[in-house]
Amino acid sequence: MAYMYKKRKTKLPETVNRLQATKDGEVLTGYVQGQKASDIEERFAKALGKAIKNGSIMSYEFQPSYIANRNVQGEIRLDFLVHVPPAQPIQIDGTFAHKAAEQKSKDKVKDAILNKHLEGTGTLPVIRIPGNELDTDEMASDALAGAI
Fold this sequence. Notes:
Layout: E1 20-21, E2 27-28, E3 31-32, E4 35-36, H1 39-53, E5 59-62, E6 65-66, E7 76-77, E8 80-83, E9 87-93, H2 101-118, E10 127-130, H3 137-147
Parallel strand pairs: 9-10
Antiparallel strand pairs: 1-2, 3-4, 5-8, 6-7, 8-9
Helix pairs in contact: 1-3
């Protein structure tokens, strides 16, 4: 006869509410164009949405892939491609993730590869916006105005 053991009852996870209010009452969903996004990416996307409404930009893409297909070795994923015209590639640098010198040098290499890949397409060189410049909606709008 085989040993029988009691199966543990596992609790089902509580429903996660993606809407999170920040200190100043701002509500963030955690998504941009149906893809997961950080708070600073979402604030920047909101600023881009306002810019589309007032006609200063045409459209934008969130996290387009270059060089290789998505999630394939060699892929370079851009945070935003803003169609002004011309197209302006923008990377958003989180304060923690892009703080170390090693990560900054990796970012420079990726930017150089992407700039070379986009050369001749009429696309401007990649610019980087530090995350600490996107702490509020107003700051995100100012950063966008400085970028385009």
